[in-house]
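Reminder to self: tokens first, then the designed residues, so the page reads top to bottom the way the pipeline ran.
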């Protein structure tokens, strides 16, 4: 038995995020696909009913961002953290974008439409059944689909928000596709937390009929990068931000600063006032959903980390150019 054991699921982007990081770090680990046969063991270690769950010499952790931070501290080579303060900050922003916003897009595409919902329900059912399709599958697959459809509103992926989420992930994918035409990873020759997080969400979309077909046709470099991110290898150093900015800035200016940052800012303000729901006007229209406390804590953590780096002129200039600086130099406004 390896010192590291990862309970996860092929249908969980956060599981793939952690698995990719473990592989990149060259850490021997046991991959345990969560299923009915190991549910009792999972529950012995889990504090919440979600994967990933990593058991390691440092303890048991279920938060993917915290896991990556701990792996970087305990296994600094090969590095998964850019040297420049500005790139470090941008990686944090992109990781949170993937975890808290791009995940909404993935969730909506998977469970908010057909044929994606039925196909995903069957994959989940087979996973829970130890990789085998049960003889009586129609009723349990339908139950899974119904349960996940009901969860759309909990993450802000209900039908009213679907057009915004669809146009959002497509804008992001197209801009990232342009960037990846000239770079193996987002920040140069080796991956960062941003790569692990974003690729994991798109890897999920690539398994779903509707977004998968679109990504393969319209964003082939993203699709190829996702395949490489299953077991990434460093091929060189991180590049200076000045060599990345021409194609990285449009990713932020054209998408991140237009959707995720206004949404995260409004959600954090709503959480601070203990409101149950909030709305924010994005470029694509009004976006309304239930307040997400965990996402608010995550964004506040990113804000704090960015604030400590705002005296870096390269970061300040980049965020100014992206129209994003204001989200990191003031407290969340009342919404």
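Designed residues (335 positions):
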């Amino acid at each position: 038995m390896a010192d590291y054991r990862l309970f996860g699921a092929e249908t969980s982007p956060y599981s793939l995020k952690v698995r990719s990081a473990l592989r990149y770090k060259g850490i021997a680990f046991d991959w345990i696909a969560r299923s009915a046969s190991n549910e009792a063991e999972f529950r012995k270690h889990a504090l919440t009913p979600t994967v990933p769950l990593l058991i390691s010499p440092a303890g048991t952790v279920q938060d993917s961002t915290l896991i990556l931070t701990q792996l970087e501290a305990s296994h600094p080579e090969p590095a998964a953290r850019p040297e420049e303060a500005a790139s470090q900050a941008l990686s944090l922003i992109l990781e949170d974008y993937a975890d808290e916003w791009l995940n909404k897009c993935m969730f909506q595409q998977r469970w908010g439409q057909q044929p994606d919902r039925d196909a995903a329900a069957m994959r989940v059912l087979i996973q829970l059944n130890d990789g085998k399709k049960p003889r009586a599958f129609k009723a349990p697959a339908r139950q899974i689909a119904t349960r996940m459809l009901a969860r759309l509103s909990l993450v802000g992926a209900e039908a009213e928000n679907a057009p915004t989420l669809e146009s959002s992930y497509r804008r992001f994918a197209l801009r990232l596709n342009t960037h990846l035409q000239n770079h193996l990873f987002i920040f140069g020759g080796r991956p960062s937390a941003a790569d692990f997080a974003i690729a994991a969400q798109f890897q999920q979309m690539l398994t779903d009929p509707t977004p998968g077909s679109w990504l393969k046709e319209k964003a082939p470099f993203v699709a190829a990068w996702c395949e490489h991110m299953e077991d990434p290898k460093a091929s060189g150093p991180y590049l200076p931000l000045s060599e990345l900015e021409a194609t990285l800035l449009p990713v932020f200016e054209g998408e991140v600063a237009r959707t995720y940052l206004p949404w995260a800012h409004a959600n954090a303000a709503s959480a601070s006032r203990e409101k149950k729901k909030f709305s924010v006007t994005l470029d694509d229209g009004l976006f309304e959903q239930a307040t997400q406390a965990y996402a608010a804590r995550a964004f506040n953590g990113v804000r704090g980390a960015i604030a400590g780096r705002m005296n870096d002129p390269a970061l300040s200039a980049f965020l100014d150019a992206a129209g994003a600086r204001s989200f990191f130099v003031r407290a969340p406004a009342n919404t």
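The domain at 4-74 is CATH 3.40.30.10 (Glutaredoxin).
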